[in-house]
UniProtKB/TrEMBL annotation:
Its EC number is 2.6.1.42. Acts on leucine, isoleucine and valine. PROSITE patterns: AA_TRANSFER_CLASS_4. The lineage of its organism: Bacteria, Pseudomonadati, Pseudomonadota, Alphaproteobacteria, Caulobacterales. It comes from Asticcacaulis biprosthecium C19. This is Probable branched-chain-amino-acid aminotransferase.
Length: 280
């Protein structure tokens, strides 16, 4: 594998970053994940827009103009010969002697990697769906910024795994679903309307979510950005998640209780197909 690291394409197994990188010491860094279909990055612009927003919110300098960034992303895909896969980009504030406050005259540090994904295995998984575990959302108040500070997500997803579940459903202190451990969460209500949490809750504005919001208008489905409880999700006919990694994935059980008939429903399945057509 080949990685891009601060201006050079290097063998990934030999790639190194500084031990004083602020991403390493303070999680003072942001990231993006793209899915790659047929060698092309899906929702390219959406992820770049969000990246620029994350950098802006943290006052991290943009390491290079958008055009150059595009060249690097595509070059990493090309050098790794990825047709079906994903790209990871991380930008930290930079390298400086450890001190909490922003260092002066620091240059942002940037890393890009790419790897293949087994689309057949993912398609099979989508046919059975995955189980979810609900967990209290103990994260900070700025989950709208895509930072690498993911320890609560890591711990929650590990707990889910130990319970035989593939994703976490985070629930706020009022009992409302916020998002997944690394996904956005949706339910289908009794009227067939899709609900997903509004962005006022400072959840991550998923790029896949944004595309879905655009897409549903063409499908005759209705989607509303509104808070719903974990109880409502458990009683819903369908629950599903979205992300650049899992695309659209049905949730067939929450905390051991089957959702709907305990198998993927028509809405999630149709949206998965539409999303993949869009991405291709
Ligand atoms: N996660 N919510 C959280 C907390 C996420 O980490 C992600 C993405 C999403 C979905 O965003 P998008 O549709 O733009 O991928 C929502 C990435 C894929 C990850 O951490 O691997």
């Amino acid at each position: 594998r080949t990685a891009y690291v601060n201006g050079a394409y290097v063998r990934q197994s030999e790639a190194v970053v500084s031990i004083e990188d602020r991403g390493y010491q303070f999680a003072d860094a942001v990231y993006e994940v793209w899915s790659v279909f047929d060698g092309r990055l899906a929702d390219l612009e959406g992820h770049l827009n969000r990246l620029e927003r994350s950098l802006g919110e943290l006052k991290i300098a943009t390491p290079m103009p958008r055009n150059s960034l595009l060249v690097v992303l595509n070059e990493v895909v090309r050098r790794n010969r990825v047709r079906e896969g994903m790209v990871y980009l991380q930008i930290s504030r930079g390298v400086a002697p450890r001190d909490h406050v922003f260092p002066e005259n620091v240059r942002p540090a940037m890393v890009v990697t790419a790897r293949p994904v087994d689309r057949d295995a993912a398609a099979k998984k989508a046919l059975t769906g995955i189980k979810a575990k609900s967990m209290p959302d103990i994260r900070w108040g700025r989950c709208d910024i895509k930072t690498v500070g993911l320890l609560p997500n890591v711990l929650a997803k590990q707990a889910a795994k130990e319970d035989g579940a593939g994703e976490v459903i985070f629930v706020d202190k009022n009992g409302y679903v916020t998002e997944g451990g690394s996904t956005n969460v949706y339910m289908v209500d009794a009227d067939g309307i899709i609900l997903t949490r509004d962005l006022k809750a400072n959840i991550l504005a998923g790029v896949t979510r944004l595309t879905l919001l655009d897409m549903v208008s063409d499908t005759g489905l209705e989607i509303r950005q509104v808070a719903f409880t974990l109880e409502a999700a458990k009683a819903a006919s369908e629950v599903f998640i979205t992300a650049a990694t899992s695309l659209v994935m049905p949730i067939v059980a929450i905390d051991g209780h089957p959702v709907g008939e305990g198998k993927p429903g028509p809405v999630a399945s149709a949206l998965r197909d539409s999303y993949i057509s869009h991405a291709r």
